[in-house]
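Section 3.1: Structural characterization of target chains.
Under the original work plan, the team committed to producing a structural model for every single-chain target entering the pipeline before any wet-lab resources were allocated. The record below documents one such target. The sequence was received from the expression subgroup and is listed exactly as submitted; it comprises 340 residues.
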Amino acid sequence: MKLGVKFGVLALASTAFLAGTAANAGMLDVIKERGELRCGVSQGVLGFSAPNDKGEWTGFDIDFCRAVAAAALGNPDKVKYVPLSTKDRFTALQSGEADLLSRQTTWTLSRDTDLGMSFVGVNYYDGQAFMVRNDLGVKSVKELSGASVCTETGTTTEQNMADYFGANNIQYQVVAFEKADQTIQAFNTARCDVYSTDASALYAQRLTLNDPDRFVVLPEVISKEPLGPAVRQGDDQWFKIVRWTLFALTEAEELGITKDNAAKLLESGTNAQKRFLGIENEAGKSLGLDPKWAYQVVSAVGNYGEVFERHLGKDSPLKIDRGLNKLWSQGGLMYAPPAR
């Protein structure tokens, strides 16, 4: 190899290494310089992400955006919400329109490997279900032969139905729409017999229909839908910040730390509580965050249980039972590695 060529190859390798290093550490710096987190959310699903009467975005997914902003920027209000359809959500994340996708998205192998994105974990264990009008007299999904089913494009819903209905020899017709509001309107005006999506979304959308008591969610759940936040691939630091924010919400509940008592426990908590909140703990430094990042998260939105009950559970109009979303110590699946 000639000397000039050799140095050229070394220079290219060095440039590639430095570029990769910058990319791995770049997202947090970009967000800090911009002064806000761009968070991709749904276009309006009650309980998860929807503007209230004042035009303020609220919901389970919104609070996760706020938690990440609290960890990364020290301020939960420094968020720009980017409403996304199911069709556009992945493109928006890939293009940089959104820094984080917090939008009722099912974690699947193909999405985790083919779309240039990585799921940070599961924040809601869900499953696909079906809603019908009471006057149809249907009590089970297996009684839906010949029915027309409204759903959204770009979701796992259509494949799940094909698998389930095919296995049970049920004939059906799909009526697909690009946006959630189009799907709901079609079902509300009887353009289809059935509306199918994640069970949690059905309970939320049922409350928006004309006379909700005319509709019922059937008992069967036909799929596993682990919903979780996602980020673009290629930035390990940002991935870990978002992932550990999710874990922090769960561990705070395990430790009995709430939005109301977090400040008090900084001074008078147990060793485990104070360590989690940032006292004599280097975990924040390894993430590139303030030592009290977890304290900032819980002070902003509360722990996982508080967020769930406020928007989806007993303190919300939806009244969804936590079920699988209880802590592991209470018979659920929510489990966080120690933040130490």
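The longest helix spans residues 3-34.
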